[in-house]
């Protein structure tokens, strides 16, 4: 405490403000960066995710588009191939399905099939996850799809500081980067360092250190996992929470190191469970960390059903701090794991 | 249904035991209370009695290797059941493969622990179970044989060596000593001796009075009735007092339960039978463990005073020397009085000097006012 007393109190801004700040700094630095999406111009974006950028950079670099995810994503791929550094903002991540071929077959593969001659430094921005019971078309967490496709990087920040640092790193990458932001995090405040910094891809952060079990979590689930850890602390179970920060590249080493310490792994992720983040991590840990495990690996994810409109039903399907805590408890006490 | 016979846990600290022999053959029937088999624990040999009548149908051959507590060593059928009615159950394999986590298996490989011999708290064996087992089976350090004749160390000697070394190394011992006037004590003993004999009651020994005095002091100082276990202060249940009993080739510390609530002649009777069982290697499971304090009395061997090593997880031990006439100052003049030295050993992790001194003061007060020790237990409430 003494060392901190002399320092100015850390500046706190929201997650979405941190991303706008990253964009502003990088757009000032690099004239190749421009932004496309629906209502992101003078309106400043559905989630205020471009607030103020139009005023500073004008309609050439902050371009409103029609509601055509396929059209502006394809335009982004072409612009990137031509030397620009575009951001294609899909608003709701669910509608990435409309632009799937452009992302999977073009953005991800052009560098490879051109023999390394053509780079596609495209950012695809997508707001994902459940907030306020938005139903089956506006609640999805579709990032696991892109872990499956070689040639893409995937970021899932959980805090304002990481959001800014990962955005700035993404805007300096020379490959396509998918940035998935949980809608429930946009207005969360947190300390964000002033001045220039980059958050590297492929480095998980220990959000909370612990002894008895590891929870590997993404985005909003980092916060739910920290709540679960607090519940479990009262029961004498010490939990380590690992914030994965990026899914591609995935920080396998940090996960393995943590599991080597704790012997137990629970993966908390809001995407659907089958072939999800948890499936991939469980497989890798089973392969390389088998001898570290004192309990079966457990996943706490969205159950395998479309997102319902009904709030109680939605809550029943979603991972929660209580479900995460129950999975950890079962692992620590040696009970059979049960579905979240 | 056949009922499993398992290696019993005889006392708080027992983790494994050796099956020495069967008192019944397979096929033989037995009554409740009859001895079934004999085990050797780290403290002594004990016969384990049948809890109900039945017929022995399976018996593992005795072996030199110790078995973990709860390991199945045999089976019996309850009276009235036959092998035919139980046939289905018997066909199931006697030994189910115990699930163990990959981490536990890796640890077992690394430490050379046999997973089959591990008792797990939960269903699946985890690393912590293996580490515990590895610790328990850690071999005694083998020293190079000294020049000259060496004899194999008997099991009891080895157990005493290990336990006393562990106690003396881990518990920070300290000692408080006090000279106690034994005039009243001897008077009481003399006065009641004849009366007791006349009624055919067992003789009262100084040990019985000491036991009672220690028990009342333990009762009145609950802080000493606790032990340092795994980094925690764990209170003991009840006022149980261990009594150091010399054996031909060693020492054992059986326990008298609820001594504070035991009337003195009853206590004397229990103490006598306990000592007889200890000397005959016939201690029962309930005779061991869970003591709050141990009494060690070397008075009969001419010792004036001594400092003993704690018997974990107890935090106090009372060492009594002989009663003998000594010259003491009484009201400014030299007087000759019978006295004895009482020394309390304490574990400084649990107890501080003043607590030990107060505990010792309570023991001394009871010994100097021994009438209190003879009152019925309900009248011995703390004044």
Q: What proportion strand of chain B?
A: 25-35%
Name the quaternary structure.
heterodimer
Span between termini of chain A: 40 Å
Strand order of the largest sheet of chain A: 3-2-4-5-7-6-12
Mean pLDDT over the residues of chain A = 94
What share of the residues of chain B lie within helices? 25-40%
Protein chain pair with the most extensive contact, residues per chain: A-B, 10 and 14 residues
Q: What structural class do the secondary elements of chain A suggest?
A: alpha/beta
Q: Could you list the spans of chain B in which at least 5 consecutive residues all have pLDDT below 50? A: 87-96
| CATH architecture label name of the largest domain in chain A | 3-Layer(aba) Sandwich
**Care to count the β-strands of chain B?**
19
Molecular structure report:
The complex is a heterodimer of chains A (340) and B (383). Chain A has 340 residues and is α/β, with parallel strands linked by helices. Chain A folds into two domains: 190 residues, Rossmann fold; 129 residues, Rossmann fold, CATH 3.40.50. Chain A has 13 helices and 14 strands. In chain A, the strands form three sheets. A seven-stranded mixed β-sheet of chain A has the order 3-2-4-5-7-6-12, with helices on both faces. In chain A, strands 9-11-10-13-14 form a five-stranded mixed β-sheet, with helices on both faces. Chain A has a two-stranded antiparallel sheet with strand order 1-8. Chain B has three domains: 89 residues, RNA polymerase II/Efflux pump adaptor protein, barrel-sandwich hybrid domain (OB fold (Dihydrolipoamide Acetyltransferase, E2P), Beta Barrel), CATH 2.40.50.100; 36 residues, no CATH class; 219 residues, Chloramphenicol Acetyltransferase (2-Layer Sandwich). Chain B is built from nine helices and 19 strands. In chain B, strands 9, 12, 15, 16, 17, 18 and 19 form a seven-stranded mixed β-sheet that branches. Chain B has a four-stranded antiparallel β-sheet with strand order 1-8-6-3, with no helix packed on it. About 3% of the residues of chain B have low confidence.
């Amino acid at each position: 405490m003494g060392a901190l007393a002399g320092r100015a109190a850390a500046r706190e801004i929201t997650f979405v403000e941190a991303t706008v700040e990253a964009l502003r700094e990088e757009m000032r630095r690099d004239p190749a960066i421009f932004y496309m999406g629906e209502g992101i111009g003078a309106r400043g974006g559905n989630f205020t995710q471009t607030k103020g950028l139009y005023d500073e950079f004008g309609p050439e670099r902050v371009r409103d588009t029609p509601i055509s995810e396929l059209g502006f994503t394809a335009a982004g791929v072409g612009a990137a191939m031509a030397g620009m550094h575009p951001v294609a903002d899909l608003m709701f991540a669910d509608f990435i399905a409309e632009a799937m071929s452009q992302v999977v077959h073009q953005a991800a593969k052009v560098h490879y099939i051109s023999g390394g001659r053509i780079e596609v430094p495209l950012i695809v921005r997508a707001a994902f996850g459940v907030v306020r019971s938005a139903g089956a078309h506006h609640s999805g967490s579709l990032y696991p799809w892109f872990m499956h496709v070689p040639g893409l990087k995937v970021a899932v920040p959980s805090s304002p500081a990481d959001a800014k640092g990962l955005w700035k790193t993404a805007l300096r990458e020379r490959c396509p980067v998918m940035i998935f932001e949980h809608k429930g995090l946009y207005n969360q405040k947190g300390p964000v360092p002033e001045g220039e910094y980059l958050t590297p891809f492929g480095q998980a952060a220990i959000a909370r250190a612990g002894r008895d079990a590891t929870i590997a979590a993404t985005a909003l689930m980092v916060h739910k996992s920290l709540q679960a850890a607090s519940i479990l602390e009262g029961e004498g179970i010490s939990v380590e929470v690992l914030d994965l920060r990026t899914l591609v590249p995935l920080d396998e080493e940090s996960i393995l190191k943590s599991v080597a310490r704790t012997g137990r792994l629970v993966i908390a992720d809001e995407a659907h469970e089958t072939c999800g983040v948890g499936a991939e991590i469980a497989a890798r840990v089973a392969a390389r960390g088998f001898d570290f495990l004192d309990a079966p690996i457990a996943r706490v994810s969205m159950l395998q059903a479309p997102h319902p409109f009904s709030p109680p039903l939605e809550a029943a399907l979603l991972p929660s701090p209580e479900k995460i805590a129950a999975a950890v408890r079962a692992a620590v006490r040696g009970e059979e794991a049960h579905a979240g | 249904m056949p009922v499993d016979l398992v290696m019993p846990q005889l006392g708080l600290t027992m983790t494994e035991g050796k099956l020495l022999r069967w008192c019944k053959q397979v096929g033989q029937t037995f009554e409740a209370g009859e001895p079934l088999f004999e085990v050797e624990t780290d403290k002594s040999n004990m016969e384990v009695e049948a809890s109900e009548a039945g017929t022995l149908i399976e018996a593992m051959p005795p072996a030199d290797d110790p078995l973990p507590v709860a390991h199945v060593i045999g089976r019996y059928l309850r009276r009235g059941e036959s092998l035919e009615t139980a046939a289905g159950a018997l066909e199931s394999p006697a030994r189910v493969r115990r699930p163990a986590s990959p981490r536990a298996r890796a640890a077992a490989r690394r430490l050379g622990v046999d997973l089959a011999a591990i008792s797990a708290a939960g269903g699946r064996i985890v690393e912590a179970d293996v580490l515990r087992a590895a610790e328990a089976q850690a071999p005694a350090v083998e020293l190079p044989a000294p020049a000259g004749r060496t004899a194999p160390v008997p099991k009891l000697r080895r157990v005493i060596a290990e336990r006393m070394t562990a106690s003396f190394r881990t518990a920070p011992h300290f000692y408080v000593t006090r000279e106690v006037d034994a005039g009243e004590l001897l008077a009481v003993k003399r006065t009641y001796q004849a009366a007791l004999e006349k009624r055919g009651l067992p003789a009262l020994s100084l040990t019985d009075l000491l036991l009672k005095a220690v028990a009342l002091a333990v009762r009145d100082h609950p802080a000493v009735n606790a032990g340092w276990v795994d980094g925690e202060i764990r209170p003991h249940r009840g006022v149980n007092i261990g009594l150091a009993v010399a054996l031909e080739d060693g020492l054992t510390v059986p326990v008298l339960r609820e001594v504070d609530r035991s009337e003195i002649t009853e206590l004397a009777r229990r103490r006598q039978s306990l000592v007889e069982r200890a000397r005959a290697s016939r201690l029962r499971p309930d005779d061991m463990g869970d003591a709050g304090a141990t009494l060690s009395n070397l008075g009969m061997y001419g010792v004036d005073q001594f400092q003993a090593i704690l018997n974990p997880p107890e935090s106090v031990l009372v060492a009594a020397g002989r009663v003998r006439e000594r010259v003491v100052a009484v009201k400014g003049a030299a007087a000759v009085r019978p006295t004895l030295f009482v020394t309390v050993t304490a574990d400084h992790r649990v107890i501080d000097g003043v607590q030990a001194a107060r505990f010792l003061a309570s023991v001394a007060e009871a010994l100097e006012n021994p009438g209190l020790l003879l009152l019925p237990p309900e009248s011995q409430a703390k004044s």
